[in-house]
Design brief:
Number of strands: 14
Helix content: 25-40%
CATH class: Alpha Beta
CATH superfamily: Ribokinase
CATH topology: UDP-N-acetylmuramoyl-L-alanine:D-glutamate ligase
Largest sheet: 8 strands, mixed
Oligomer: single chain
Number of domains: 1
Distance between the termini: 21 Å
């Protein structure tokens, strides 16, 4: 089915991002440690990550023009994170340095047997945006505004400005926050983690939960990522199940797979594909990301994605 969106054509960016960036400390172990044990790690690396920042990098590699708004800390990790976006070609004119803050950090334990990861993270409160600080001009200058809801009040005014300008609002959500229901009422595309819908609605069955979200908030496309089981989407009353793609060479690390999925889905929609083909692209980009450790290292360019999809 065709996505019921009309994208603006006379603007600067394909996708603007507002939300999280991070630096990830990735620790690979031969098997996940049991409680009160000692396990020798296989290797460890420091790599840039963060949901919105990584999604924009993926879209940039797929040929789109992107811009990022978010705060980095005034530390070496912040320099690494900011430089990583610049090197990929993401516009960072709306990004800033929070002078008294440390960059968001994640310590990620990756089980080498399966590539599954466990994340321990911390976000400094001084990285936050208030509604008064939100870069509304950015929300008005893109086809799609893609956000995480961590600074919910700021995200709400960003979504309002985007809607008024005709920009499509996309939300990456894996937790509930104060006022998140107001933000969901301003969201066109909502892609959630596998357990979020039940926490949000109290409904265990995912299809029923998606139907309830559509009824409550009016989101046009609602989706849930299901790891190696693929994804499920609801668009205008039609459910779309898409199987996961096999990771070439086996799964090295699932860190950032959800960010990659969202990038692949937005790539499909912006390319004029129908919702089913966009979901297939989403699963493909996520699978290709999982070839190597970290949220971004194995993100494909357009040629690699097209080759993989055949």
């Amino acid at each position: 089915m065709r996505a019921p969106f009309e994208f603006r054509s006379d603007i600067q960016y394909d996708v603007a991002g507002f939300g999280t960036n991070a630096v990830d400390y990735l620790i690979r172990v031969s098997e996940y440690p049991s409680f009160n044990s000692k396990v020798e790690l296989t290797d460890w690396q420091i790599l840039p990550g963060g949901e919105v920042a990584s999604t924009l990098v993926a879209l940039q590699r797929l040929g789109f023009v992107t811009a990022y708004a978010g705060h980095f800390g005034a530390d070496e990790a912040g320099k690494l994170g900011l430089r990583s976006l610049i090197d990929e070609g993401v516009n960072v004119d709306y990004a800033g340095i929070a002078k008294n803050a440390s960059t968001q950090v994640a310590f990620i334990i990756v089980d080498a047997r399966t590539g599954e990861r466990t994340i321990l993270w911390k976000r400094d409160a001084d990285l936050s945006y208030s509604a008064a600080d939100a870069p509304l001009d950015l929300a008005r200058t893109a086809k799609i505004l893609h956000m995480t809801p961590h600074d919910t009040a700021a995200s709400i005014v960003m979504a309002e400005a985007a809607r008024q300008a005709g920009t499509i609002v996309s939300l990456d959500i894996d937790n509930t926050f104060d006022e998140v229901e107001t933000l969901l009422g301003l969201t066109d595309i909502m892609i959630a983690s596998s357990d979020l819908l039940e926490r949000l609605t109290g409904i265990r069955d995912k299809l029923s939960a998606m139907t309830e979200v559509a009824s409550r908030y009016g989101c046009t496309i609602i989706g849930v990522t299901l790891g190696d089981k693929g994804s499920q989407l609801l668009c205008e009353g039609v459910f779309i199940d898409t199987p996961a793609c096999k990771v070439p060479g086996g799964c090295a690390d699932t860190t950032g797979a959800g960010d990659a999925f969202r990038a692949g889905f937005l790539y499909g929609l912006l390319s004029g594909f129908d919702v089913e083909e966009s979901a297939r692209c989403a699963n493909a980009v996520a699978a290709l990301k999982c070839r190597d450790i970290g949220a971004r290292r194995a993100l494909p360019d357009l040629d690699a994605l097209r080759t993989f999809l055949g």
